[in-house]
Amino acid sequence: MRKQVRDFLTFTKLEKEGVFVFLLLILFICGLIYTMDWINWKANPNSEKLKSEFERVKHLFDSVQATKPTSSTVYQDFKRIDKDNQLIDMVDDTISFAPFDPNHFSLEIGASIGLTENQSNSILKYLNKGGQFKIKSDFKKMYVISDEKYKSLEPFIMLPENFPAKDKIKFEQSTKVKSTSPQINEPYIADINSADSAALRKVKGIGGYYAKSIVAYREKLGGYVQLEQLMEIYGMDEERYLALQPFLKITNPKPFRKINVNTITKEELKLHPYFDWNLTRSLINYRDNHGKFRNIQDLNKLQLIDTNIYRKIAPYLTL
């Protein structure tokens, strides 16, 4: 019985050759059919099918055109540039904005000029606290507005370049009146880059805690370059900062201590307030892999450094 089954399932050499020839024949017929269909299609393409596909694509294109913003809508285009595996956002140079009055600022206006929601909220807080923009350059004083951003927005700010002549005359007249009036003690104004804690306590609104905190944070930074950096001190909110701002100044907005990015160690770098562990490790690893930095702008190649971080750390760096 077993022998009969084996004989039934076993092919002879002739049978194997026959099966192989049969399979080749099937493949040849299939290929021939496919080739003939392709030849017929080339000779007489289905014009109706092509026409329907063309109409479908045209319809999609028209729908996209219909959803484009109007000429009065302000928008920004961004190009993504892959350089050394680092993706960098660049604003198109041809962008234009609609004129706006910063004293009537809103989240919609902020979005239209390319500001983030956090940046817009910072401006709104300033206005809600009684702040006001009188001339164009006042808008530049906002911490969230960089020099580059202000240059692109300046032509569209609906404010005068300088104070009107009548306001200037009033100011000069008030100055003359003050010069002839009895001497009045002016409020004490402290330079946060040179004043010690005792001098800072003379400023209205600054007690012992904030006086020591301002001096301590100055030492960690290596010097203040902007008054707005005081808001980085623990407990210093925007309301308190705005109240102290008229009584503080920076005579020399340059750090008294800088960081050499080509020689600094990891342990030393992470002591700076602007360099957390991840950013410190990223900078040191990049320097180890690519060699010394040729210029400070090379730091933009680091994945963790965006425009805002670069603006903050650049004044404190050197080669």
Automatic annotation (TrEMBL):
Keywords: Membrane, Transmembrane, Transmembrane helix. The chain crosses the membrane at residues 20-41. One of its GO terms (cellular component) is type II protein secretion system complex. GO terms for biological process: protein secretion by the type II secretion system. SUPFAM superfamilies: RuvA domain 2-like. This is Helix-hairpin-helix domain-containing protein. It comes from Acidiluteibacter ferrifornacis.
